[in-house]
Amino acid sequence: MIKQVFFFNYQTAEGLNFSSANTPYLGYSFSGGMWMLLLDIVIYTILGLYLDQVVPSQFGVAKPWNFCCKKSVKRRVADEEVGLLGQVAKLNDPKNFEPVADSLKRQEQSKECLQVRGLVKKFGEKTAVNGTSLTMYNG
What we know:
Elements: H1 2-11, H2 30-54, E1 80-82, E2 88-90, H3 102-109, E3 114-123, E4 126-136
Antiparallel strand pairs: 1-2, 3-4
């Protein structure tokens, strides 16, 4: 491609311009070389994005090599919570919560803690939060 630029700039009167970009010199044209560079950019960008997902790193979890060919399965999780390791636990199961200490129960009785009960948040027809309760204690 550099040889073409020098040829058109030093051997022709008009130099390299849009009308002479398609003229072949030494087997290929300047515009053909530019199209190949553009194709290389696209290929290496896709390859880089793919390898960023597949190669293990200190951030996140590496996906399997064929992750882009697998069908994405979305499922509703009602009254269940998916944990960090993929376990599913019932939200209302008392064994998943530690007991509240007596000092914290006294904060509830004396109204020294922040309590949110039955929180609901809707976006149009979709319900994002439905009946969530939360207690935050001092200290």
